[in-house]
């Protein structure tokens, strides 16, 4: 399961080899579901929500006021993407990146719009691994486009707030909406990191006392999950930092504090990810030394047992010799004396080993 | 114990997921104590100290001269925080950070005030771990607000000095007070690092001669404590550096040397923390090689014992054979001769092993 | 095979020692094939393709419009290179670098042309190693020169697109052609990284359950392949970054987005390479601990067997003693009783070891 | 011994906790010797040297020409330090740093003077450890103050040169004197690094052939010594670099080449320190693998001995069986034949093990 | 041998302790050979070569055209160096650095001349180590001074080219000559790295199949050689980079491409050095795991042998017991049956171990 995921994000790029640069090709797990397009248009007063739009209903909004958010579930259909690209004046390379699930997070400023690539993270409790989904945002004047691989997202709370007219959302422009969506994605990272952190801590507590044979495998898998998160957050941090400094005025000045806060959150996620990595590295060492400790203990006990009996066997061997003239053999109490000697030797060795703390 | 602490600083963030950004939610261990607000107002001449203020008594000071320091113990009560936020004109994101115990140290300049997040550190001798407390400062014109999770802090010496009219404190503005509070927090870091350093050195001295089975666990715990300190000081250093360079004039020029000194101190704490980390890494190696050394010694001795007796047992076995025609069996002095041979072989092997320094 | 490759890129440089700097000398595996020169001239309307040009047919194009792409297969013939250098006004150091297969990737701006060194990568499924080929581009006004070590390249798709008049290629200048060639090289890196990635994953899945004795060797070889890729991509990233920032106007402004995309791709290759490295490092550890685990298991089982039989042998030895007065020897049921005792001791030890999970 | 040292530099800082910032408190090993103040005043012509000055004799020099160097041995007496501070117009934080032996090296520019903290290093052949002493310089117009913990310093050669009127010293200003003192301190670092380097090399040569049980401890101690040096030189390098770039004109332009030279020397010390560290890390590995090699050799030989005798014992055991019908027992030459067989088996095994190079 | 070398470059610095800064003292292996001075003066037309000049014949050239190259073999004679220093107007610190063989590579711009310190490297096939020689260049207007420790250098090819009037050398100024000398030194680095690389590869191929006991020592020595190279090239890279950027016009603009090429070469040497380092680190690991593998194999085989015979010895022991009532003893075919049982048990165990791949 975990493997499938890894491949999705990093491989397949080669399938594009040989095509014209800027030729959009879907890179990712092949899908056949129909593309679903939904939209929410709102201003301070009204909100109109439409589900399952046909491609013909989607236009670049020309309303002077209000914000339109168009969400596209499914990015594998070239025809749909091309049509959207044309209507919203997207650069061919943008469409290429929209459809390329192996594209790393970034922010790019085009004359007409701001293009943002992110990764949505979800810790899957069933497979015990992190699911990654490719999400892109287009922020233009008065509209936001969001693209996802499949239905089901982390944007639901934002929709709720829009509908409920809660918070600042309704009274602000498309830039604030884009910020809210980015914030929703980053907030979700915390959940993933924390879930992984919990798994790590549960394991860590058990590791020294009771190492299991599949723990090493599990630690490696967790390391990969953490790496996946890291690879999603690091470039996002960079992208958000770029947005902060960018001269292009896609984000109003009143959003400065919010972008700064978002940037802060990405740093915090990175901090937590780094802590997890260090913990995992420590656990790897702990596991190895714990396993080798147990092994050593076993070998020590076994060797002690052998060491105690080998001299005793020698004594028995001595009196098993068949010499004609062995005075002890004829003595009356030789046998019990030998037993006493053997017990004394054995007990003495056990005592010695105890005292030396070898047993 | 240690674990609870770690969780507090890094986890729980997810409980905020889905809320509007800038919505203050308390993130940390849930508390039920009432919030306690105290204030000290002073100028060069007078000092008025009030304890257990009710929320209604707290106002933004409008006195043209003098400094007001309001200290809030308890940050979990949203109502109180909201009310304070309104009266002092705090940005919603500031209130959010005030209440978020997992927020990392930082300095943020707002038009009206300077916002500072720090971590108070305390080495707890009972649990042998570092207690972390979330502390925030708001520095405005003529006032300083300080927020803590619970009563009992490192600010007592500052209060003492204020009351005693000692030092520069009374004659300077709110910026100097804020500096004094930051200095008190950083000074306390030294104590924690030194306490950890003492524990490390005590352990280090014993480790090579007498490694104990729980030492590894202890080393890991100390590493985490050191990491906790590191995570508190690194961003604080950055924050102080930012204050030094910042154009915003919350700190007067006459404080330059003091901020530089504070910055120096954070670097020194980091130096000490890094030294501790290296020591701990070295101790980890020492422990492992010390354990493996002991194990090897044990195995060597045991194997030597076995190796000495196995040839002797063979000799005894030879004369335990039942052949009819074994001339030695009938000889008169075979038995003592065999004993002599066996003793000679045994002694020879011991001598050889001694000479080779295997025993 | 692998070794030959490594040498090619890094060694042989010394053969140049003592010559005048800027004296072109071929550095690489000696070759004897004739140099093959081909050219494609095109504008939006026409395309003329010529194969196997003689040196006399190659001129710096003076057509005001259209682009000429001259591809040279074989860089070992000093005479040919010198002649080309003169006709296209190349700096002696450029010719030296063109012929030096150990030259690392770079971009250099000369007054008249832009000089680009790259490495072509090909994962060879037969030798299971990465083949490296030295490729250089010269971008001048209206022409592009490409130099390769031998026939067979990654530029075929670009030629196809030129012939088919597909994409932007035909309608753009020589800068776009140069970009398309660079893009073809970088796109091919993905293929190599992915092939290596597949080999790594296949191995990783098997490693814990069934480590083979040549795995370590294989891991080392893969590490070297990954290093080879890394050494090709890192400086290329730098070179592309330089092109982006360069004031020299060899690349038109309309290519900015494309260069940015190319830069992005190099970063992505580096990301994948770094992931592969980390995986390989992890696999190295896994292999070692897996091998040592198996060994430990074997030793444990063997030691357990010995430990069970040594006490039993001692018991047998006791009743092999020849004392005259050993009451047990004469008892009627001594023999079966001893058997029972021995079986009980053996079974007891097995049970104990089982319970302790040593067996 | 070594431990005492470490503590001195890094601990004790906490004793200052709770005091007003800028309150000078002596931090270091408590001392009771009286403070000794000496001075040398000179210009190109004359030199006046005074020893054991009383506090009242020390004044800020007002001579328009010439240089006064005041050296203070002993920094633990608050009264003395305070008085000096007042007479030379030192900032309270400067006095605090003068008395704080745990202060790290730094350079600070004050309006009136330049403040420099350094560490004097001395490899103590008796304790085999590095002694650290806290040294501070104050460079003002026409005077230099130097502060040390105790008598006996590395400045003697500078004094000699002053008295002998050798070199550039007498003809230059106070800035050159300060440079000469810094140079004397840095020059002394070379001696310490070289002494440690000698110890390391002696040990390294012996380590592979004859590892001793206390070598690991010694390596750790050397690592600490090297770390101590590193912690003294790194910040000093920074400080010297700062002096070079500083606009403040405490150092004349004619000293540029000298400061650059000093900077170079600090880099060279760092280079040597880093080499020593790498050597020590390598030695640590060498020691461990050397110890484990020896252990393995021992175990191998012992196991070979046991392995040779166990089959022989089995053969003897076979003919020790008491079956009635064992034809071999009655044969005439069974016994010598068995001996021959046993010797053949033993010799065969030895030969086999030899050929396999196990013995 | 190797050790002597190391000492030369890093130690001895202390012998200068206590002298006036800028006092030239020879630091290096003491020598007694006479200093040999040779000169070559040339312009495009003529070339005059003089060997074994006396000190009186050496003057700063005042010819308006042409270049004079004065080469000094032997830098230990203070009188000679001082005289040269005076005639060419060298700064005292320059003379100090000229004579200090432990000086690290650097470039320093003085008003009148450019000063360059380099290290000449030579892989000595006899001692299997790298010989280091301290080389300095002084580039002034119309002249170049080169200083070496002893006769025999890497400059011979440059001399040849000068005499043969080959290449650009004769027609260019002193800056080009300085460049050519630097290029000769760097070109020689390639030879050393490649020689070391060959040694490494030969060893690497053998290491897994046939590790020898002195391989570890050899790997350590190679690591040191590589480190020596690294310490020579890193600062040289920096120095060349500084020359490129320097405003001082010691190098004409027409040399830009050549300096860039030289810079490139230093980077390439560093790349090769880093590759060698990684290879050596990998070989260290390979060696250790290869040794431990062999040891494990031996122990496993030995333990298997013991494990097979111990149960058989037990069976023989059982029938060596002297009980009166042991029915088997009297049976007719007991003895052969026991043999069959023992052979079956032994063969069964061998088969089992084989199947488990323990043997």
From TrEMBL, chains A, B, C, D, E:
InterPro entries per record: CorA_cytoplasmic_dom (IPR045861), CorA_TM1_TM2 (IPR045863), Mg/Co-transport_prot_CorA (IPR004488), MgTranspt_CorA/ZnTranspt_ZntB (IPR002523)
Protein's name according to its UniProt entry: Magnesium transport protein CorA
Compartments in which it is found: Cell membrane; Membrane
Glycoprotein among keywords: no
Tagged with keyword Ion transport: yes
Family label: Belongs to the CorA metal ion transporter (MIT) (TC 1.A.35) family.
Membrane-crossing segments per the record: 301-321, 333-353
Region entry Disordered, spans: 1-25
Bias (Basic residues) ranges: 1-10
Topological relation to the membrane, as annotated: Multi-pass membrane protein
Free-text function comment from the UniProt entry: Mediates influx of magnesium ions.
Gene3D superfamilies for the chain: CorA soluble domain-like (3.30.460.20), Magnesium transport protein CorA, transmembrane region (1.20.58.340)
Matches recorded under NCBIfam families: corA (TIGR00383)
PANTHER family linked to this entry: CORA FAMILY METAL ION TRANSPORTER (EUROFUNG) (PTHR46494:SF1)
UniProt main location, coarse: membrane
Alphabetically ordered keywords of this record: Cell membrane, Ion transport, Magnesium, Membrane, Transmembrane, Transmembrane helix, Transport
Protein origin, superkingdom: Bacteria
């Amino acid at each position: 399961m975990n493997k499938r995921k890894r491949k999705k994000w990093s491989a397949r790029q080669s399938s594009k080899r040989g095509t014209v640069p800027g030729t959009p090709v879907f890179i990712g797990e092949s899908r056949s579901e129909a593309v679903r397009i939904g939209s929410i248009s709102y201003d301070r007063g009204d909100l109109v929500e439409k589900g399952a739009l046909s491609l013909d209903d989607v236009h670049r909004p020309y309303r002077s006021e209000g914000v339109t958010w168009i969400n596209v579930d499914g990015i594998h259909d070239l025809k749909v993407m091309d049509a959207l690209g044309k209507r919203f004046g997207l650069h061919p390379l943008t469409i290429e990146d929209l459809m390329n699930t192996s594209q790393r997070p970034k922010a790019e400023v085009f004359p007409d719009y701001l293009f943002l690539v992110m990764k949505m993270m979800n810790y899957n409790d069933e497979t015990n691994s992190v699911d990654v989904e490719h999400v892109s945002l287009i922020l233009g004047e008065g509209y936001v486009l969001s693209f996802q691989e499949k239905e089901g997202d982390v944007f639901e709370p934002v929709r709720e707030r829009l509908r409920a007219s809660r918070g600042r959302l309704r009274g602000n422009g498309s830039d604030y909406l884009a910020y809210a969506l980015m914030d929703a994605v980053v907030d979700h990272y915390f959940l993933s990191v924390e879930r992984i952190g919990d798994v790590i801590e549960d394991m860590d507590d058990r590791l020294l006392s009771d190492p299991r044979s599949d723990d090493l495998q599990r630690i490696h898998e967790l390391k990969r999950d953490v790496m996946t998160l890291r690879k999603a957050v690091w470039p996002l941090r960079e992208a958000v930092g770029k947005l902060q400094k960018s001269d292009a005025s896609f984000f109003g000045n009143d959003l400065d504090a919010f972008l700064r806060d978002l940037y802060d959150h990405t740093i915090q996620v990175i901090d937590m990810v780094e802590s997890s990595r260090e913990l995992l590295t420590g656990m790897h060492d702990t596991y190895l030394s714990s396993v080798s400790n147990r092994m050593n203990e076993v070998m020590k006990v076994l060797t002690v047992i052998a060491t105690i009996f080998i001299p005793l066997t020698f004594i028995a061997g001595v009196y098993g010799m068949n010499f004609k003239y062995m005075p002890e053999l004829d003595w009356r109490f030789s046998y019990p004396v030998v037993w006493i000697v053997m017990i004394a030797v054995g007990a003495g060795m056990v005592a010695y080993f105890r005292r030396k703390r070898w047993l």
